[in-house]
Design a protein that fits this description.
The chain is an alpha/beta fold. The chain has a single domain, classed as STAS domain (Transcription Regulator spoIIAA), CATH 3.30.750. It is 39% helix and 30% strand. It contains 4 helices and 6 strands, in the order βββαβαβαβα. Strands 1-2-3-4-5-6 form a 6-stranded mixed beta sheet, with helices on both faces. Strand 4, helix 2 and strand 5 form a beta-alpha-beta unit.
Length: 132
């Protein structure tokens, strides 16, 4: 991994340019609107720098944002990042987060992002590398 950020942010983020796509892994105990907005801001900044066409985001945050309103807020604010035009596969390592993540996908797609949520890492990679 080429960069790791940690500290009092409440999460660790790793970036790896894998040639065909940018790989990002987020790790931590808890999620919140502040944490999600912070790591998506960092992802947006890295995308501005590297200009990837594809982005694979793997999230391993044990506790998810609780309310649907918070999920809507995070998903709608992602639109303001530098992610428009990038194909984004999002894989959450926590299976119990999948239903809320599907809602976030709907919001983000309605905002113009080309993003898909997956509960299977191989399926996420297959979609990301496909031409669809």
């Amino acid at each position: 991994m080429d960069r790791m950020m940690e500290g009092d942010k409440g999460y660790r983020i790793y970036f790896e340019d894998r040639g065909d796509y940018l790989f990002v892994r987020i790790e931590g105990e808890y999620d919140s609107v502040t944490i999600s907005n912070s790591y998506w801001r960092e992802i947006g900044e890295k995308c501005e720098e590297l200009k990837p066409r594809r982005l694979f985001v793997e999230e391993d945050l044990r506790q998810q944002v609780d309310s649907v309103a918070d999920i809507y807020q995070v998903a709608s604010e992602i639109f303001h990042r530098s992610l428009i035009g990038i194909k984004i596969a999002f894989f959450d390592t926590q299976p119990d987060h999948h239903q809320k993540n599907i809602f976030a996908e709907l919001v983000a797609r309605n905002m113009g992002l080309n993003v898909r949520i997956f509960d299977n890492k191989d399926a996420a990679m297959d979609w990301l590398m496909s031409e669809q």
